[in-house]
Amino acid sequence: MGGGARELAGYLAALAGWVAALAAAVLPQWRQSSYAGDAIITAVGLHEGLWMSCAAQSTGQVQCRLHDSLLSLEVHIQTSRALMIISLLLGFFGIIVSVVGMKCTKVGEEDPVTKSRIAGAGGVLFILSGLCSLAAVSLYATQVTYEFFRESAIPINARYEFGSALFVGWGAASLSLLGGSLLCCSCPTKERRGQQYHRQTQPSTAREYV
């Protein structure tokens, strides 16, 4: 895969990861009521996310309520919120920086070495964004797992298990890490910089001999 194609593939993967991370942060299905156990048919399905909790009736009606107070929330929810916000901010700056540094764009510097370095910086931002998303989702999933097996006195169908937003978050983190890694591969090494310098100086030397 050529350098330009690798950069484009990395940028598209990282962009898709950022959009998926945004969707995961907004979705209220970070954890949902469990359907395990004997009574698998319930009239109300409960969902909770970082910003709101929802109750889905069997008739199809959904009622959502925002979390009342920030300080009264559990620590893992506050931490996941902060990590997802940081992830989205890093990804947003990564999108802007990567556009400037990609070879297929005419924005910013014309020097290919400088543009490759800028694209590599955008890749680093995407990697940091993916790590923040991964940490937020994994922290929340760990807490859900801990509460599911800790509360032995509560029936299984009254506990909470993983919601769909967690899987979206894991996919978003994977895409961001993959895209950022591909963008970082475009950063020139010492050998490549030497080859480019030799190619730039060779025509002028030939003209001097003529």
Automatic annotation (TrEMBL):
One cellular component term from this protein's GO annotations in UniProt: plasma membrane
Pfam families in the cross-refs: PMP22_Claudin
GO MF annotation: an example: structural molecule activity
Cell compartments where the protein resides: Cell junction, Tight junction; Cell membrane
PROSITE patterns: CLAUDIN
Main location: other
Membrane-spanning segments: 82-102, 123-142, 162-185
Keywords associated with the record: Cell junction, Cell membrane, Membrane, Tight junction, Transmembrane, Transmembrane helix
InterPro entries: Claudin (IPR006187), Claudin_CS (IPR017974), PMP22/EMP/MP20/Claudin (IPR004031)
UniProt membrane topology term: Multi-pass membrane protein
Family: Belongs to the claudin family.
Function: Claudins function as major constituents of the tight junction complexes that regulate the permeability of epithelia.
Protein name as annotated: Claudin
UniProt lineage: Eukaryota, Metazoa, Chordata, Craniata, Vertebrata
Gene that this polypeptide is encoded by: Cldn19_0
